[in-house]
Design the sequence.
């Protein structure tokens, strides 16, 4: 059991080469000297792939590479040997595979702390959250982690790092523009409920916030840390794009009523961006806002600004 004197020393990361996992991994590796061991659990990369290149880079930074099958009890059990802290960053499609990871962590002789793949929208923001389609797999993992009798007996600690939407993705248009977003090349914007505030976290900062939580274990144990980079509105984002790009933009405005219609149509047609529309509707409804953030609980790490993430978006579009 992790107690008040616990300090994480041996870290294992699942999903380390994925979209958000790579940012979390980079942040942890940037503090490599603070840990005795940092390792990632991954499948064998394809030769010449970006994943292989990233893994080779990690090897040069004294990161252990464990190749295995996330669904294999023996592979995961062996990977846990000597590990005290597990950080999961699995994609939405395999979130429920964490049930096995948590079960084996609880029965491990060494694992004391588990970070589930929670990064993103708060799945327990309010009563309506329980029925939102994109939340169901994460809710299943939380229910197991918090409610299983054997897990409770083990004393396994957990921390949910709840970041709200990733600013990097929030700025981009989806398959249905009514859900909001910006296209720098055409200078076209769709503002969903333009004056409604939304809390955003950059992907880079997600990694920094996980690292900050690792540095503050007792303040993070068995909590949902509500953290973010900054809070803004679509209108303020538009002002920043105009400030940085100059010239005139074509600006459309969208309402929650219209987005709800588009959302229903997308789910009925089984469109791949249906989840994204639902999430953006939740954000526009205020589902990322709190009276108080938990950034200070984990040391108030230095994070990116709206201006910086807009600048990155503009440069990518050049």
Sequence:
């Amino acid at each position: 059991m992790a107690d008040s004197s616990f300090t994480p020393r041996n870290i294992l990361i699942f999903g380390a080469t994925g979209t958000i996992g790579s940012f979390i991994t980079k942040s942890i590796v940037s503090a490599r000297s603070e840990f005795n061991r940092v390792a990632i659990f991954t499948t064998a990369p394809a030769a010449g792939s970006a994943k292989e290149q990233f893994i080779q880079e990690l090897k040069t930074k004294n990161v252990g590479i464990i190749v295995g099958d996330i669904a294999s009890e023996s592979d995961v059990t062996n990977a846990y040997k000597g590990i005290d802290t597990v950080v999961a960053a699995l994609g939405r499609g395999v979130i429920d595979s964490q049930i096995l990871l948590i079960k084996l962590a609880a029965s491990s002789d060494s694992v004391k702390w588990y970070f589930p793949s929670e990064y993103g929208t708060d799945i327990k923001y309010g009563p309506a959250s329980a029925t939102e389609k994109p939340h169901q797999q994460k809710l299943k993992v939380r229910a197991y982690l918090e409610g299983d009798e054997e897990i409770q007996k083990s004393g396994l600690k957990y921390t949910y790092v709840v970041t709200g939407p990733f600013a990097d993705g929030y700025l981009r248009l989806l398959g249905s523009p009514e859900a909001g977003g910006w296209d720098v090349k055409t200078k076209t914007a769709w503002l969903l409920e333009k004056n409604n505030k939304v809390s955003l976290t950059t992907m880079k900062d997600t990694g920094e916030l996980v690292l900050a939580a690792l540095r503050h274990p007792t303040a993070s144990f068995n909590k949902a840390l509500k953290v973010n980079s900054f809070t803004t509105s679509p209108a303020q984002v538009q002002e920043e794009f105009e400030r940085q790009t100059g010239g005139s933009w074509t600006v459309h405005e969208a309402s929650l009523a219209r987005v709800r219609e588009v959302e229903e149509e997308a789910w009925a047609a089984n469109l791949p961006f249906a989840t994204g529309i639902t999430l953006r509707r939740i954000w526009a409804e205020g589902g990322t806002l709190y009276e108080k953030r938990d950034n200070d609980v984990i040391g108030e790490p230095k994070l990116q600004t709206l201006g910086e993430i807009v600048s990155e978006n503009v440069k990518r579009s050049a």
About this structure: The two ends are 51 Å apart (CA to CA). The chain has two domains: 10-163+201-228+289-301, 168-197+232-284. The CA atoms of residues 20 and 318 lie 24 Å apart.
